[in-house]
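Lab meeting notes turned into a lecture example. A postdoc, R.K., suggested we walk through two folding results consecutively so the class can see how the record format repeats. The first protein's sequence and structure tokens come next.
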Amino acid sequence: MLRTEQDRIKDIGAFDTPKNIAQFLATWAIRSPGDEVLDPGAGAGIFVEAALERLKELGKPLGDALRQIYAVELDNKRHADLLAKLRDRYRLQDTSHILREDFFNIVPSTDLSLEPSRALRVDAVIGNPPYVERARLRNVRAIQRKVLSGLKERIPLHSVTDMYAYFILHSTSFLRDQGRLAFIVSDTWLSMDFGKPIKEFLAKNFELKAIVGFDKRVFPDVLVRAILLLMEKKMEPNPQNRIAFIQLRSHEAVEKLHSILNGTSDGNGWAKVVRVQQTSLAPDESWSKYLKGSKVYFQVLQKPGMTTLGNLARVSIGLQTLRREFYMFDPEKAQQSGIESRFLEPIVVSPREALHLIQNKDDVCNYVLYCDLPKDKLRGTRLFDYIKLAEQQTTTPRGKRTIVKGIHNLPRIRKAGRVPWYNLKGEIERRCRGEILVPRRLYKKFVVVWNKAGVVANEDFINVHPKDPLSVQALLAILNSSVGELVSRVHGQLYGGGVFDLRPDDVKGLPIMNIEQLNLEEKTRLEKAYSGFIETGDRGLIDEVVNELLGLSEQQMKRLNNEIEDLRSLSEISKG
């Protein structure tokens, strides 16, 4: 297959940064005309030029400034283009500081007699580390070994850590005390599991000054959401240090960030700011909520009688069949296959299908295979013929080009350890009939479903199994309220395609009113409001009760609705 230039760019994770963002990061990180600067993934040289402009602004002659900037670029073509640009535009003669090298091969050192490609300490690290899709990463263990060798402590890096995270960690080894790092990176480390040890390490060794998000995409061709990471290396970080979590309306407003960082502004409509004491942040919590959440969200969290949904219910992902085309049946496929109805179970596969309430099994139209009998007990049935055919046909594992004979021999199916291999009954009965179904992906609409019929839910839902069976409708009222939508969107992971994605741990951690502390009359009011909501679709009926029980003022309710609209708009903007 012919590889295109686009394929090559994806392999190296190269996406050029807007000039105004590079200028801001350079201005913030470089504070003195004598500062030495490192760009560990130089690419087209946008940050090299921004560093030159900053040093000139601070009074450094151009020739001296060039000698204070180290740039690293692995890709031959981009390195050659960068050298040509610097020679042509800046008359650069000495190119020994513009290294064509694997950044992870460079060793930080204070011994300046060593070759610059093997020894380096600087006052500022700036740049846009490559964003390489995990599937394209190679030699992960070797990268981890090199990164850890430069750190003063070992940290438990995950095997699925993104490339940019390795750049962050390795870059910290090159900073002198009180040196600054200013990067533009993906926001995934703020909420994904691989980010936990990284957050713990950074919080212990740095004063995190700001994490800046954007309402609009910075890189139009990349689905990941970009943030700015601003931090300063400290031998002993100030325990009173407060991180500014800033959400900008657009990256055009980045020049105004200095006013927030120096305390002369708090956004004034062009940014949303939440300041959090660094020592209060836990590495195992999602830090992205501080970008998406704002004043009313944090006020709700402080209300008396709040808890998390995980304290009131068991939470689980819906059914993951691992081979949808074999296990799932729409009405036409079910009829054509002739499989006996006793081996098929109704399953809800989409929030659009479920609406607000699944009253009866007939309310859904799709089916899933539901049989735990061994194959020899199925002889003479249409299901036997269906299974036998599946075991004989050739197929391809997801994401692979190899051919496998038999669905049962697919690696994911074998790894699942189902007995017999087509048996989903245990998984279904253990976790896939939640009385409450939270949609896994949120776009514009938000409805939590009452699964009154107890149908099977697929992986597009998070199953909620209340510990108190009598609390189902009261919980549904709270979750379907405006407060419920606000906390769900704040805790969801927002991707570039415009979708808030909720994982089971996100749902488990949703802040919610503790119904165990409500009296009978308060629970009854919630249940009646929810019944009215089911009949009319009017969320105002439940909002009135929930807001009153939480003690929200009229001004707070207005702000709450504005915040929800902002989050919905954020979803819309991220999609485009």
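The second example is placed directly after the first for contrast:
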Amino acid sequence: MIKIPPNSQWQANGKSDTFGSLYSAFNIDLQTNKGATRVSPRMLINTNNITDLGTPVAFSTFTDQNGGVQYHWAVAGGYVFRATTTSGYITAFAKDSSTGSPNGLCSSDISDMASYGKLWLVVSATDDIFRYDASSGAWNDGTSQLGTGVHMLTTYGQRFYVTGNLTSIFSFTPANYADIAVSGSNTLNLANNAYPITSISTIKTVSDGIWVFTINQSESGCWAFKWDGATANDPNFAYIIPDSSGVLSSVIKNDAPWILDNNGRLMYFNGGSFVEAPNGRLPVRNAKLLKNSLSSVNDRWIHPNGMTIVDGRIRILINNENNDNSKTIEENISSGIWEYDETIGWVHIHSLSYHASTAGSVTDYGQNRIVRAGALYSAKSPSTSASTNGTMLAGAQFYTNATATANGIFTNDSNNTLQKYGYLVTSKIFSSNIQDTWQSVYLRFKKLFSSANAIAVKYRLNDVPPMEATITWTSTSTFTTTTDISAYAVGDEVEIVQGTGGGKCAHITAILNAATSEVTLDDTFTGATGTAKARFQKWIKAGQTFSNQTSNFEKFSMQPQKNTSTWIQYKVCMQFTGDDELNDLTVINAKHE
């Protein structure tokens, strides 16, 4: 008998499918009730596919003192968008129409946004600085001096600082935004030094200066710099990032920088150097293969504004697509929002869903694959409306079916009222003997809140690489595909990773093979229509799906003739509402050899 997780504490290890207890997760919450496993509330579409909306790469909350209205602001593509805060984060964004707005002049590849107290909001455009004056409710255009490269913004002391010309930092005072210092005091030019640098990726402010992070496309090492914001052209301190070619994103925690590099490593500054955080490796086979890992603009698999801190824990928004022609993805790393806990490691907590923040029916439970990751923003909304919902904003370009794309702003269902779906996969559990017969697994859980909620358990005894296929839904439980799926049979698992039906798993009950195969599933995908992408895997279903509301434990039996091996992995899929939760698994095994 084996209990999972040991001591009621899951642990993920990004370097192994054997160490720890948690191999992968999708929409899993391990924080709101420590020791229990819940499904995270959905991420909902706030605004999508409206005219000129690009990938949202910067958010801010700033008040127009002239009109007395507080807005959430976003830079998304060439334009600035904003939404009132009257209903928290669920109020839809619209294109900013303030006088002098930098509409058509921004870019998701290079632009950023920062505020200076309650007085000014600044946006960096393709070569300009635009300042929004809270007292007048109007924008003013600065001079065109930023040059090439990304234009990331921060404030320190009495000045704004902005990156430009790939390896430089310029500055200006908010009152004199048109007078940008491009050389001399309060500027930095890393090209004057011998460090191997392609471009600055991002900058962050701490109490005693500015941290500057870089990318090196020649892959001969990258550097982080500490600068006082005043010394002309030279940083005060330089630190190599060990075995890394780029710092892709960063956040300040307890006045120290934490970074995510192109290897998928979370690292922090310990006062003398950058070191890898405990359990800080994302579970990715080779992060260097992820999308645009060392791009000199902000189209990488994580945006410089894609990190934030919530309740003392780091969260990131990532794109899981590899940089190959087929846009492959790995089984154990999904797009969306991940959270880091030093005792647990990285856990996927939110995928981006099609469900609208204001209304709408269920057409998916989350997208495993997205096109592009933008900004992640967390701040308590000042709204006191009864309809207030959401504590985060996320920006992304996503797939609307198997091929088409759209841009969107997403928020979380912090009220936790909507049905959601998630799963976890255990690490490999090795037999107590040479081989064991895996007889059954017992799950303990809270009695389900709704008859529509369910728990399914699957297992596997062999490593078989998954396969993807483009599908066309013909009903809510059947689809067709022209891809050769002859390697799969009745009983195998199908997971929808992109398009309607996304984020949910089911098992094949029938296949009609012809030039176009027709597949029937054992579960219903509400609202499924059009094209999508499905991942086929060799998970074996244990027992039947559990959905009654009278018991708080259930036995799931392994299939005879398919239950003997040297190791086993379990996958637990949960369709939950509210605070439904899983407590633990108890594996019953016996000696076979």
